[in-house]
Write the structure tokens for this entry.
Amino acid sequence: MPRRDDTPARRRRFAEAAREERPDLALLCLLVAQEADPELDEDGIDATQIELDRLAGLVPYSPGGPGAWAAALAGLLGDRFDFRGSAADYRRLESSLLHEVLRRRRGLPILLSVVWLEVARRAGAPVYGVALPGHFVVGFGDPYGRHVLADPFDGGRVLSDEDAALLVAGALGVPSAATVPAPAKPLEIVLRILNNIRAWAAARPELTDVQLWAVELSLLLPSHPARLRYERAKLLVERGDFVAGAKEMEEYAEVVAAMEPNAAEAVRRRARAARARLN
């Protein structure tokens, strides 16, 4: 676990970075990674940014239209450096940590997409992230006009809008129209990464510490689901901090009481039960 005395400073830096006018996606991902890896210091963060710069310097100069940009990135990252993913990557926390994805050249679709986004952006490409349900890809060109989609998890395989719709249908289990979501903003990408980490840790009851810091970082983002406060409260109770957990449950109940009075009362009952465990 990260050193306790470093936590307040790290959290302040994350919150400040998330509130920049133009948030630095790579930096935010690395600040997330610091929570999981206490060995990732300032030199490690700088080294990761330098590696992204180095890769960007290997992209051919202004290759052409969206298809040419996609092909250039696939040739560099997918073919030459073999960045891609597999089913096994979903079982590893490292697959959600940017510095580890750069080192291993393996990761979840969204982290591989972050590598593509950061390298392509530095090289001057018209690139953006596309948050499909259940999968994350990148787009080149005009998201509302002429564009090309590529799947970094599959080495940069080019996708048509119909291919993307099939991915969505596979994730949702129902047919989907051949439409692509609007470009994902940096903070939306960071929240989705944190959601992945929370889900990974939730399936491993011994890792409530990981789930807790992922929730707490999510709460530092300017926009986040209010229910995360309740999730944090439950985690505090699970970890034996009954007073803080009960207090946060009561505060969450006040927030939702006007719209969901029954849910608020259920949360208050949980808060009373948590306090009763102190007796």
Summary: Residues 120 and 209 are 34 Å apart (CA to CA). The chain is about 60% helix and 10% strand.
